[in-house]
Design brief:
Radius of gyration: 25 Å
Mean pLDDT: 90
Order of helices and strands: HHHHHHHHHHEHHEHEEEHHEEHEEEEHH
Number of helices: 18
Number of domains: 2
Strand order of the largest sheet: 5-4-3-2-1-11
Distance between the termini: 54 Å
Helix content: 40-55%
Largest sheet: 6 strands, mixed
Low-confidence stretches: 381-390
């Protein structure tokens, strides 16, 4: 009883103001440790754990620790390093699976695994650092600082997705599992709009401590609870009204070959891999299949040029069937050199010679995976391992909707392209479905393939379009227009799965308006923060 009483007394004294004051009085070296710990703990909010309260605790603690920087001698510098340390741990733990890809390749690449993962995390964290510097420069002290925090951090997240960095991975919205009730709000606001709302909601407890009346402190939390309840209710209603039907007379065969990347790309590895893909493709029921799908880079060769593969496929696909396959592709340039592309090819087979009915070259390439930013500069150093690392693919000229593959028009997304919002056309050019092929085998049993799947499912919700996904040692299957998976294939499955194609839902608000609701909400928030900052400047 005494222990219970003491525990109750301790909790009664554990008020937001006491917690904030305790953090603010930490010496710098201890504050840095706490920031790193909060960042690591916040990483639990990402897939596959989805423990979003961790991000609430992390963001609240970060804001309270940034409150110290507001009164520092050099607030910008202090704010930068505090936000940077938090983000380095938070973003770094979320993408550390990148290192596994380099370890998987072996050889000279092994050294670059930790370097890219740790250095890449630091590079991404620098954007949060700049946001922290700006936040502290605003010198806001009351509940409005929660709004300012959400504004600057979302700007940092957007900077991560710029053409140079191209890494909008694990946005705040992604803490909500795709296909669930809250995730349905992406149909109205998009993943970016839901991310902004998540930042506002998750940081609202920080307003409970600091300046302001008790009513002013509690209001952001109350509003956040109401917003979360509204998102959940609206999403539940949307799912309750979902009526998913399927395209008649189409059957897609997803071919999954469980093969280690080192074996696949080893000398002579193409023969056994090709044999296994052909065996599975020809499995029982092939005559009832209209389309066969092979994942990104299924064979370690140039499929379009490989007469052995084409001849074998001609023996299997004899009913006018279509193969949709990922393959590396090369083109000879005017200077008699080769340019390489990561491509998707559509090939229709009949008694006559097979026809290439569609071709798409990947536009958005993976930094440090398919190309290296500033690659020419790195190559100029003359260090052979660096030069090997730089060699890679060229980007395709433009996004393309493929319409001649004996199926409704579809929008191809190769691997990493599925993490980007807003690239699927709407209006008259809206496709009927999305095909996402990927090679997640490089990332092994890490969180990477699961995070990739969750992010991809958000594209279905945003656009109201079904997705057929084929991923080597990733998660394949069918995603309906609401982000749910009526067919899901485990990453280590070796075999075939015949699936039907869901029909598209009605165009979403997000797609029709190009994310207008998000932009209105975000610009209005910037205006409110700016107005308060200007007003306080005049009051001085």
């Amino acid at each position: 009883m005494i222990a219970i009483a003491r525990g109750r007394d301790f909790l009664n004294h554990l008020t937001p103001d006491r917690l904030r004051n305790g953090l603010m009085t930490l010496p710098p070296e201890k504050a840095w440790i706490v920031l790193a710990a909060l960042g690591l703990f916040s990483g639990l909010s990402a897939s596959p754990i989805y423990f979003f309260p961790a991000l609430i605790i992390g963001q609240t603690g970060l804001i309270w620790l940034l409150d110290v920087s507001v009164d520092a001698e050099k607030p910008g510098r202090s704010g930068f390093w505090r936000a940077f340390l938090f983000a380095w741990a938070y973003l770094g733990i979320g993408v550390f699976w990148v290192a596994f890809a380099f370890w998987n390749r072996g050889g000279a690449y092994v050294f670059f695994g930790p370097l890219v993962a740790i250095g890449g995390g630091a590079f991404l964290a620098a954007f949060w650092g700049l946001a922290g510097a700006l936040y502290t420069k605003l010198k806001l002290r009351g509940p409005v600082r929660v709004l300012a925090f959400a504004v600057v951090i979302l700007a940092a997240e957007a900077a991560k997705g710029l053409p140079f960095t191209q890494f909008p991975w694990n946005l705040p919205a992604h803490v909500f599992p795709a296909g669930g009730a809250v995730s349905q709000s992406a149909a109205w606001f998009g993943a970016w709009g839901l991310s902004f709302i998540a930042l506002l909601v998750f940081s609202s407890p920080a307003a409970l401590a600091g300046q302001g009346s008790e009513t002013q402190k509690r209001l952001p939390v109350l509003i956040s609870l109401l917003v979360l309840a509204a998102l959940y209710a609206g999403g539940t209603q949307r799912l309750g009204q979902a009526d998913v039907r399927y395209q008649p007379d189409l059957t897609f065969r997803l071919v999954n070959v469980d093969v280690d990347q080192r074996d696949k790309w080893a000398p002579g590895g193409e023969a056994p891999v090709r044999t296994r893909y052909l065996e599975l493709t020809a499995s029982e029921g092939i005559d009832d299949v209209t389309h066969v799908i092979w994942p990104e880079g299924a064979l370690p060769l140039f499929l379009i040029e490989d007469s052995v593969s084409i001849a074998a496929l001609t023996e299997i696909l004899t009913q006018g069937q279509t193969l949709l396959a990922g393959t590396p592709r090369r083109e000879r340039t005017a200077s008699d050199e080769y340019r390489y592309y990561n491509s998707l090819v559509s090939m229709t087979f009949s008694e006559e010679r097979p026809r290439v009915t569609g071709l798409y070259d990947k536009v958005l390439l993976v930094p440090f995976g398919e190309y290296v930013p500033l690659g020419n500069l790195i190559s100029s150093f003359g260090v052979r391992p660096l030069q090997e690392l730089v060699a890679g693919y060229s980007p395709g000229p433009e996004f393309t909707t493929l319409e001649n593959a004996d199926a409704p028009a579809f929008f191809p997304m190769i691997c990493y392209e599925a993490v980007f919002s807003g690239i699927v056309p709407g209006g008259a050019g809206r496709p009927d479905w999305i095909l996402n092929i990927s090679n997640d085998a490089w990332f092994g049993p890490t969180a990477g393939p699961r995070q990739h799947l969750n992010i991809t499912r958000y594209r279905a919700i945003e656009n109201g379009l079904p997705i057929i996904r084929s991923a080597s040692r990733g998660f394949s299957g069918v995603i309906d227009p609401y982000g749910r998976m009526p067919a899901r294939i485990d990453r280590r499955y070796d075999g075939i799965t015949d699936v039907a194609l869901p029909l598209a839902a009605a165009p979403t608000t997000y797609q029709i308006t190009s994310g207008l609701l998000f932009w209105v909400l975000y610009i209005l928030s910037i205006f409110i923060v700016s107005a308060i900052v200007i007003q306080r400047q005049f009051q001085k």
